[in-house]
Description:
Layout: E1 6-14, E2 34-37, E3 44-49, E4 76-82, E5 103-106, E6 114-118, E7 133-140, E8 147-155, E9 161-165
Amino acid sequence: xxxxxxxxxxxxxxxxxxxxxxxxxxxxxxxxxxxxxxxxxxxxxxxxxxxxxxxxxxxxxxxxxxxxxxxxxxxxxxxxxxxxxxxxxxxxxxxxxxxxxxxxxxxxxxxxxxxxxxxxxxxxxxxxxxxxxxxxxxxxxxxxxxxxxxxxxxxxxxxxxxxxxxxxxxxxxxxxxxxxxxxxxxxxxxxxxxxxxxxxxxxxxxxxxx
Length: 210
């Protein structure tokens, strides 16, 4: 019916693998990321929620939270970013992919039940255009904070693609040692060639973050 908003709900969890923390930490790339595609031009609300400790009958409730309420488990927040048809998962930081116009909105990081942002905070703010891909990246402020969360997306018109979880990154790691023969220093010094070097060979065109 006219005037009724469309609601989409996502239940997720920060696990040992996906609790990456905020953009202050390189591990933010491990956070769950969800993609939506806008149908008709629309305004939108984006809400991130964490469980209310008062609903847990087993644990004791600590007071002293915001406005006299309970103390919540985590500081939570979410970035709302412009997506890309090919490079769907966000991996770059401090670049045009994250900074500037590609961040559509973000919530503050607060130790609270719910944080939210929307496309109507500022006068004259544009609606999300038809066909726009949007990536939602929920996280705790610090990495390695485990827990469940829920995202609610409200739009004036139906999405052409409801929220889907984007595939996780492939994480490759190696360790080494700078010894007497391999501690060459940076490229300001001719000895840089002595440093240990690694070769990465891709099987197909890909984005790589090191």
